[in-house]
Amino acid sequence: MRTLLSALCCIAIVQSTASIRNKMAALITGDWFAESEVMWPGQRFSLKVKKDGVLHRSRSKFQDILVFQSETYGKVLVLDGVIQLTERDEFAYQEMIAHLPLFAHAEPKRVCIVGGGDGGVLREVARHSCVEVIDMCEIDEQVVAVAKEHFSDSTATSFDDPRLTLVHADAAAYLKAIVDGKGDSSDPAIAAALKRRSSQWPGYDVIIVDSSDPVGPAETLFAPAFYDSMKAALAPNGIVCTQGECLWLHLPLIAKVVTACRATFPSVEYAYTTVPTYPSGQIGFVLCSLDDGERALIRPTRAPTTSLQKLLRYYNPDVHAASFILPEFAARELKKSR
Amino acid sequence: MRTLLSALCCIAIVQSTASIRNKMAALITGDWFAESEVMWPGQRFSLKVKKDGVLHRSRSKFQDILVFQSETYGKVLVLDGVIQLTERDEFAYQEMIAHLPLFAHAEPKRVCIVGGGDGGVLREVARHSCVEVIDMCEIDEQVVAVAKEHFSDSTATSFDDPRLTLVHADAAAYLKAIVDGKGDSSDPAIAAALKRRSSQWPGYDVIIVDSSDPVGPAETLFAPAFYDSMKAALAPNGIVCTQGECLWLHLPLIAKVVTACRATFPSVEYAYTTVPTYPSGQIGFVLCSLDDGERALIRPTRAPTTSLQKLLRYYNPDVHAASFILPEFAARELKKSR
């Protein structure tokens, strides 16, 4: 799963939620699903739906949820008209958004996942045996339920992990409560989660933001205050990795995000991965670290064990380093804020 | 411009030319152009056409040619229903297919371009001041004419370069005549080109294959004999770079191609670039070198001058090296033939 626009980017989005939501209604014409193109006008990606292939269609408290069986990409999860994952290529996103920060960190023990209701990021985080605590804050319980029903063979494989505490709450409120150290949050889910937290809580080593559409339920995650909360919620040398949109579609916005992050974090880098079913075929990540060492994010400090590497289909240590090498047009733009 | 399937890949394509051509008819419905998806079933990319935006539509001796003004990607060239270039992202393809072999070579003086009728590869090759001879063999004169009319500000900028000899002929016959050293080719265009060739011709330093659709006019380029001809037409340490399709769509075929090339050339590598309007958002290149030095292709032996680098929007020396770092699923597959 990924956001439609990255957390910080969306500050620049001024269209009303309602009008975008209307336009975003998933569109299946004949046997083709055509993605909403509101956020990338003038281009449109379509997937062929198998005969009788619509497996789920509902409206949760927060968003429209659609699952269909495609002809050539396996099952597809769509939220508010936008493809979140297909079984064929989801690993390229999940592995990279998870393993870039996790292998950049010397010893990640406490990890927070924001969003990620399909379970894909959780699956990847759970593969790190050094991780002791996985807190996941996904606002939409129904997305998790749908993932467990339809994607139990692909992304939703690790919801039983004993290290996991899954909270269905607004992540901005959740992180703020964590930072404030208050167990008396007005949200009972948050209050319950915080009660289990020791007073000696040292902060997260890694926070991964895999939230859904900023014009939908994840709106509150897009205020700058959320980024201050994330920074405050990190342990020393902690790393944040957020979905960072596509260089080909939103470079001016990405540049603003990176510039803003550089004013806050000692190390900020941008990486990307290729995902055929995402707009323009790729998606990036903004990585921020409290470690100010040169190449703190770019050079992995650990490598997958042989057995873990065998499970991975996109990530390896060479891919890690190469994912930060950007096309000249983008490198030039993002260099300006260094 | 790029082939629909790479030269070698197409050996495996068994559909009849006629049936594919029929399906490939460019499809503009309402104000959207939808690309033919014959070669990548189940997925479809569409571009919005500007009002009254169809600028050219014809059938040459070889193929259907369409040019339209898109809403968000500038002018678009379509051959037989498949997007060949858009003004917004063409540089990612042209720069990489040209500069990867040209900067891998220590001093490319003699360059052959196969196909490339839109002029984009020629534009990039012409930027190398060390290049003395540019021979270009494009079978379809009409594509060049259309490019000169509609893309004179973007790709078709260098057809007046004094180093250029442009031959409209079948490139397989052309290269065979070059190798055989025969000036008496039955094709007068080839015979004329060869007459200008000195008997001391040392071979090409770089051959770039940017041919069009293998089920169309470029069919003859897809026999293994063409690859033997290319090898024979190279000078010592010469390099061939051919469009090599998309890792996400045609990996088994790509693996076969790379394996076949490794039986013939001492150094064979695969690189890729991102191009939003190509199927699945990226396209790769098979590079073969007569130089057996380790990293002969991966490490550029020269770097762009400062003034050239300023003109480039995708390529730089870091991008060169990184483009050979493949996602684990692909790296694993292509390692098998090492």
From TrEMBL, chains A, B:
GO terms for molecular function: spermidine synthase activity. Keywords: Polyamine biosynthesis, Signal, Transferase. The keyword Secreted does not apply. GO terms for cellular component: cytosol. Residues 1-19 form the signal peptide. It comes from the Eukaryota. Residues 30-290 form the PABS domain. The keyword Hydrolase does not apply. PANTHER family: SPERMIDINE SYNTHASE, SPERMIDINE/SPERMINE SYNTHASE. This is PABS domain-containing protein.
